[in-house]
């Protein structure tokens, strides 16, 4: 089973790692066969599994249920689980929510935010819970952003995001996830923290790992699809098409062909 130390070693070795969201045991098994390095049980399940229009209604119990299912199906990948909306608003909430998802099988929790999470990160880490902080476009704050938009488009905003990263890393964050930011910023942040693996989604080709929502990369998202998504199913056929799409994704992340320039945001900072 891949551990956090393995992800750190991948970064040290310059070996890019693949991550996909997953919510059930059979997809998790297919990802195990395809040797996907890490799995995120994302609160995107609110949309992709529950049919809601945002991640806000998702509960800690939902996250634990899907985490346990994925862990039963996959003994290979590093597993991290989202703490859903308002489940880490206080230190006690964060501890209780993390306890629930870690006992369900997560190896790490993920929280959306910035410097304001520093104390929470420190307390969780002290209690043996590794933390990933998700920065940039953070979907739980969609109503603050007023939509799903590119973040940190100016030098000033990029520097503020770097300061947020620094604060949570100083507090003990073991992994960073950057969503929907200029490729240049993804590169800068990945280079700034040599011991902290950085996963990107719409953050350019230079982050240490890449993540996509599984329904997006299988072409199962109907309606608007983000610029940073590539449909890996299009290139497959036959009864092993899903498995082959996962294998193609893993290979494309490792050889650096995903994301290509057209899946990244090129903004000069
Ligand atoms: O919930 C999720 O799927 C996520 C990804 C978009 C990174 O947080």
From TrEMBL:
Homodecamer; pentamer of dimers. One of its GO terms (cellular component) is cytoplasm. Its EC number is 2.1.2.11. GO terms for molecular function: 3-methyl-2-oxobutanoate hydroxymethyltransferase activity; magnesium ion binding; methyltransferase activity. GO terms for biological process: methylation; pantothenate biosynthetic process. 3-methyl-2-oxobutanoate binds at residues 43-44, 82, 110. NCBIfam families: panB (TIGR00222), PRK00311.1 (NF001452). Its cofactor is Mg(2+). This is 3-methyl-2-oxobutanoate hydroxymethyltransferase. It comes from Acinetobacter indicus CIP 110367. It comes from the Bacteria.
């Amino acid at each position: 089973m891949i551990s956090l130390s393995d992800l750190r070693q991948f970064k040290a070795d310059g070996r890019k790692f693949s991550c996909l969201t997953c919510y059930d045991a059979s997809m998790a098994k297919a990802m195990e066969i395809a040797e996907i390095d890490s799995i995120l049980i994302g609160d995107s399940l609110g949309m992709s599994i529950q049919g809601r229009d945002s991640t806000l209604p998702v509960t800690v119990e939902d996250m634990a249920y899907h985490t346990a299912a994925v862990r039963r199906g996959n003994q290979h990948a590093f597993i991290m689980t989202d703490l859903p909306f308002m489940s880490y608003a206080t230190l006690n909430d964060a501890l209780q929510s993390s306890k629930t998802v870690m006992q369900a099988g997560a190896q790490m929790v993920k929280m959306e935010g910035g410097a304001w999470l520093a104390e929470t990160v420190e307390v969780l880490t002290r209690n043996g819970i590794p933390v990933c902080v998700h920065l940039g476009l953070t979907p739980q704050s969609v109503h603050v952003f007023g939509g799903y938009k590119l973040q940190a488009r100016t030098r000033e905003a990029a520097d503020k995001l770097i300061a947020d990263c620094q604060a949570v890393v100083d507090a003990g964050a073991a992994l960073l996830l950057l969503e929907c930011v200029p490729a240049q910023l993804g590169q800068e942040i990945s280079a700034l923290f040599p011991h902290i693996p950085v996963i990107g989604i719409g953050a350019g080709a230079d982050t240490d790992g890449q993540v996509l929502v599984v329904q997006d990369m299988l072409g199962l998202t109907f309606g608007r699809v983000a610029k940073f998504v590539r449909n890996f199913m299009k290139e497959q056929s036959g009864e092993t098409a899903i498995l082959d799409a996962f294998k193609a994704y893993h290979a494309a992340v490792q050889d650096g062909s995903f994301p290509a320039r057209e899946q990244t945001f090129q903004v000069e900072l």
